[in-house]
């Protein structure tokens, strides 16, 4: 059973499209572990302190040495194999894992436990039917449909006790009868038994392997083969060379190993923290670029990326966290600047792009600011709904934000996801649902504010583009040889939608970075082909070099705005 459970989990992580329900394997692990733990505890007729101490020692012996060994491996990988941007992403989770508090339930708007608690709709087929039919149903039918769907979970049907006993007896009899015929085929398969034996090691190791291989990935077919092969080899080696060996050690030896491994992981965490502080404090000489030294230029890019990303997320230079909305925004998603001496309330709203580029707006429009605000909701698009895989809070109420902040000028700065979806260009664009969302939100903006700057869509940088660029150039190859291999040409439909919105909006002005990021051959590549310097990081955010390219645009917008208000 453990073999099937771990196979479900691995397939779900490696191939989520084809095995969307593989996460059930985790539940199976919990059931199996719960059964074994309860069985072990009930072996002793007397439950006393000695029995409990022995029980918990066995649990620690079974889990902790391998757990901390894998954490140490992950930390070493972060320091040696993965891009520097991964340090920031994993710093907090690393500490929580060392302290064994990763799975403690937290009160927060984005916690998975609360999401599950709020979900009452049956899974699977009902959800498909609901999506297909809800446009054709009026509101009353929809509401009654939800009630009927939820009702089985709240209806208690009385059942005599002897019925339950009969049903249980019959079920077990059937299981024993039919199970005796099939257990050799299903649960005694050698491969499944082998995977079950290494299941704990495989469970711990497969996801770090996935992340590392993904960071070096070029060919999806070979990537998946490498993930599976490396995961099995490492899990097998760890199981036989470490896990099975320490199970034979004495209690004192086990205690010493756990303490040493925990101390080592804490020391490495301190090393991660030092690395983060070092990158945060780096000063960059942007003129120190050697066209013949691509490795140094990529190192400079990585340091610059880390520095600018830390500053963008914290926005400590000019922002104070004093905006409060009923949605309970996370502290990294909403902030407000100190009051200025100007007369205009300026709001930058969007997703992580708003944080990434908000300082450019502030520095250019500083003299006009009476109040400067940034509302950044990571992974979400202000102008339309975004898939939940990007946006954790799709129900975020932007109207409430606008009514609360009452801005005179709004900069809509989003990295687009849903807006890049295909639409039929032979049909009137007014029939497109995403365009309709854009217009609804733009009409709301025009009603509330005096001026709207709308960011135009850009091609996406491929996943891990910065690191792939580094790997490409580390042996002296110029980035120009990769041509457009770091770019996804996915911007066309979003640009068409935004262009049409601009035509219909009297208070709008479209901001377009595209012409400013072209190389000398008028190609958009997300890097400078002359210097091997990347303009974007692995998260599709502009790094310090990319931001330098577009800084003058905001200065010109500010000058133009000053001329416009001088004629009012």
TrEMBL record:
A single GO molecular function term of this UniProt record: acyltransferase activity, transferring groups other than amino-acyl groups
Residue intervals passing through the bilayer: 22-42, 63-82, 166-185, 191-212, 224-242, 254-274
InterPro entries in the cross-refs: Acyl_transf_3_dom, Acyltransferase_3, SGNH
Keywords for the protein's UniProt record, in alphabetical order: Membrane, Transmembrane, Transmembrane helix
Pfam families: Acyl_transf_3, SGNH
Biological processes annotated in GO: polysaccharide biosynthetic process
GO cellular component: membrane
Domain SGNH residues, every copy: 332-555
Residue stretches making up the Acyltransferase domain: 1-91
Protein name per its UniProtKB record: SGNH domain-containing protein
Gene encoding the protein: Acey_s0154.g3029
